[in-house]
Amino acid sequence: MIELSSLKQKVYDVVRAIYDVHDVLGPGLNESCYQEGLQVELKEKKIHFVREMTFHPQYRGIPMEATFRVDFICKDDIVVECKAVSDVTGNHRAQLFNYMRLLKKQCGILVNFYPFSADVERYFYDKETNQIIATDGHVIYDYNRRK
């Protein structure tokens, strides 16, 4: 079982950086503007990150040719997906959840910069149970259900 309180603390400064970017840039710009702003903010706050990391998923242990690109990996274990859309959908969440699972990263942040206040969702991936968990501890998605 994952320890939620320590994971919540782990993402705190990344979330703070996200809000700082939104405070400076405001709502309504395109996604790439916010990504550039977040890159600057993460550097200034000395938070380790990789921007637009590409990876190849595996099918039954065999690397596929398909390529995915994650907006940010912060602190080696936090997937950050940036959006600038009128409404975040289940498809946006599924994208984040699958990146977390495929990369085996424990923390995920889905941020929508479009609204007047940045909308930040935090999720956690329990590698042992293969489940996505919300900040309140309830299971959002169970990858074992599909088997």
Structural class: alpha+beta
From the alpha carbons, calculate the radius of gyration and give it in angstroms.
15 Å
Spans where pLDDT lies below 50 across 5 or more residues? none
Relative strand content? 25-35%
Brief description of this entry?
With 147 residues, this protein is α+β, with helices and mostly antiparallel strands. Helices cover 34% and strands 31% of the residues.
Record the SSE blueprint:
Elements: H1 4-25, H2 31-44, E1 49-55, E2 58-59, E3 62-63, E4 68-74, E5 78-83, H3 90-103, E6 107-112, E7 119-126, E8 131-134, E9 139-142
Parallel strand pairs: 5-6
Antiparallel strand pairs: 1-4, 2-3, 4-5, 6-7, 7-8, 8-9
Helix pairs in contact: 1-2
Descriptive report:
There is one protein chain. The protein is built from three helices and nine strands; from the N terminus they run H-H-E-E-E-E-E-H-E-E-E-E. The protein is an alpha+beta fold and 147 residues long. It has one domain (4-49, 75-146). The strands form two sheets. Strands 1-4-5-6-7-8-9 form a seven-stranded mixed sheet, sandwiched between helices. Helix 1 (4-25) packs across helix 2 (31-44).
Task: List key phrases describing it.
single chain, 147 residues, alpha+beta, 7-stranded mixed beta sheet, two-stranded antiparallel sheet, 3 helices, 9 strands, 31% strand, globular
